[in-house]
Design brief:
six-stranded antiparallel beta sheet, about 625 residues, alpha+beta, single chain, 24 helices
């Protein structure tokens, strides 16, 4: 896990000095080491976070002596030991114990086809001097970021946009269409566009090549979600296969030459990882959970219950109220974008504490909800799917059981609300126009966006042929929800030089889950059926039976309403507020009033506006 930077250029006169400054903006991603490779027309930079092979032999950029290829690589190839053995059988000789060298040899042996053999998370570039071609690749789900920009001086790429802005200051321009899609519809990191007009993201599951005569990178897809198949399988057999896949995903992600820990909320996802890791490594993991001080315990009770069977006590990390706005300003700089979830705030303090405790790798449960059906909207879709498939009275009984169980898990009002939203999508648009960030947008800005702000990555054929629930899961996993969560997870963890590893993002597990229909995700109204079964067999009956879902609840929305919303008013209604570029002040004041008065439904929208203002203040002004 590191920071990467590259520049293919022949026009710059002060390129080396600017490149060094740009690389320095990524120091937080790789506090242990750094180096630059320079040749005619190419600069490659690397900031290293040492996780595998802590010796100086792991320094990057790394060269393949056989071909002269040079790599700068961010991520981990978890199955590197198996790949190394396969390559050694082909006659390859290794001089380090790193996964980076394995990746270089894999590219020498198999070219772009090597990507299909990798199990991990990655963003890397390989310079091939023989053909003067740059090969760039990103992992299947975009866990690791890869940004690039074409300027008059050539092609540049980096882990984070801030490095590109330092290299080419003319890139420091907001992309108004992206801002509009975010504020009006909550679309975030859903496609190739970023919040900077000329900075793009290499799509997940793709690689690109940039040669001497190329005007732009030629992008190709090497992986996609599986097409719908009819897998008829006994539930008991499915539960065993799921357990084997999850256990192996955890096993691979505990490979490390430094200490490995876990963010533990006491929810189904993190507890399952803990149970699996405990069987694989009885010495246990250092667990971290979030609290807020006083009577605000977050999910500390559940985290303690999850860890108790293993004789472990999670370290409680306080996310203090003091200076929360200043912290969010720092977070905006590291994210290089706004965000829609205040969950970044407790995560920031968890990652910071883990680093202070000497834990540089943390396992997390990200990705389970969108593959296994953990959110209330999925329970609502399950109910609708039952309704559409009813053939008689027996089916009606099954429907009643589904509704009853779903209402126990998420409460009847929540389930009813989501049923209405799924049945009448127009209600979502209406609510955004009344109580959402969209209600605060300036009419002139809205008019300027007509015809310019179509969806960056519209729902396509990926969901075709799947049942109703699985189709939604696929869209949320690939576009609507998960990409934004992965982006802020990477940004916040790497802000503190901590590597976040996600067992539920193992591609074998994801492919297996999406090859099965909704009955393997939600059964009789009980979400995450496979995961609950796993926990029950792992000796976690209390967690398996949880009927609520919180994740890491955060009081940030309530803090924004305190003292009649004073903090938010001072920020968003100030004469020099950047958000005035997009919002009408009077409408913005009404939205703040609504939230400050205690009326529900506007808190996350107010946070969205606050986050946008903080990003503009910190990232769009000249450093």
């Amino acid at each position: 896990m590191c920071g990467i930077l590259g520049w293919v250029t022949t026009q710059s006169t002060d390129g080396r000095a600017r490149f060094a400054r740009a690389l320095d903006t990524l120091r937080h991603r790789g506090p242990d080491d750094g180096d630059v490779y320079a040749a005619d027309g190419i600069l490659l930079g690397h900031r290293r976070l040492s996780i595998i092979d802590l010796s100086s032999a792991g320094r990057q950029p790394m060269e393949d002596p056989a071909l002269g290829n040079v790599i700068t690589f961010n991520g981990e190839i978890y199955n590197y030991l198996e790949l190394r053995a396969e390559l050694e059988a082909l006659g390859h000789v290794f001089r380090t114990a790193t996964d980076t060298e394995v990746l270089l040899h894999a590219f020498r042996a198999w070219g772009a086809q090597a990507l299909n053999r990798l199990n991990g998370m990655w963003a890397f570039a390989i310079w091939q001097p023989a053909t003067r071609t740059l090969f760039m690749a990103r992992d299947r789900f975009g866990v690791k970021p890869f940004h690039y920009a074409l300027t008059r001086e050539g092609l540049a790429f980096a882990s984070e946009p801030k490095a590109l802005l330092e290299l080419s200051p003319e890139l420091r321009r907001a992309d108004d269409a992206t801002v509009f899609r975010f504020l009006s519809a909550g679309e975030l990191h859903a496609g190739e566009d970023t919040f900077y007009e000329a900075v793009k993201a290499l799509p997940a599951g793709c690689y690109a090549e940039f040669g001497p005569d190329a005007g732009a990178p030629k992008i190709r897809r090497y992986w996609d979600y599986p097409a719908p198949v009819s897998v008829v399988q006994d539930p008991e057999e499915a539960a065993r296969e799921f357990a084997c896949l999850l256990d192996d995903a955890v096993r691979l992600r505990t490979r490390s030459d430094v200490k490995v820990g876990l963010t533990l909320s006491g929810g189904l996802d993190s507890t399952a990882i803990l149970a699996s890791a405990q069987r694989l490594s009885p010495q246990g993991l250092q667990c971290f959970t979030s609290v807020y001080g006083g009577n605000e315990r977050g999910e500390a009770r559940w985290a303690a219950a999850a860890a108790r069977p293993y004789g472990s006590v999670p370290l409680e990390v306080e996310a203090p109220k003091q200076s929360w706005l200043d912290t969010l300003l720092d977070i905006a700089w590291h994210m290089d974008s706004p965000g829609y979830s205040p969950a970044v705030y407790p995560l920031w303090h968890l990652m910071k504490t883990a680093r202070q405790q000497g834990v540089y790798v943390l396992l997390e449960g990200q990705g389970a909800d969108e593959a296994l059906g953990g959110y209330p909207q999925y329970a609502a879709l399950s109910v609708l799917q039952h309704l559409r498939g009813m053939r008689g009275f027996a089916d009606f009984g099954a429907l009643v059981r589904t509704v009853r169980t779903s209402a126990q898990t998420f409460s009847a009002p929540v389930l009813f609300k989501w049923l209405l939203r799924e049945l009448f999508p127009v209600l979502i648009t209406a609510n955004r126009g009344l109580a959402g960030a969209a209600s605060a947008l300036d009419p002139a800005f809205l008019a300027s966006m007509e015809g310019r702000a179509a969806a960056a990555h519209p729902a396509g054929s990926r969901a075709a042929g799947h049942d109703l629930l699985t189709a939604r899961l696929l869209q949320d996993h690939s576009r609507n929800i998960l990409p934004a969560l992965l982006q802020y997870g990477d940004a916040v963890s790497m802000a503190h030089g901590v590597e976040s590893r996600l067992p539920f993002m193992d591609y074998r597990l994801v492919e297996w889950l999406f090859a099965r229909d909704a009955t393997f995700k939600i059964a009789d109204g009980r979400t995450k059926w496979l995961l609950r079964r796993y926990l029950l067999q792992a000796g976690q009956p209390e967690i398996s039976a949880r009927k609520d879902k919180q994740g890491y609840p955060t009081p940030v929305e309530r803090w924004m309403a305190e003292d009649n919303g004073r903090f938010v008013r001072d920020l968003l209604l100030a004469p020099d507020a950047c958000i005035r570029r997009y919002c009408d002040s009077a409408a913005l004041a009404r939205l703040i009033d609504r939230h400050a008065s205690g009326r529900k439904g506007s808190g996350n929208h107010v946070y969205r506006l606050v986050s946008t203002e903080l990003w503009m203040r910190r990232c769009l002004s000249q450093p």
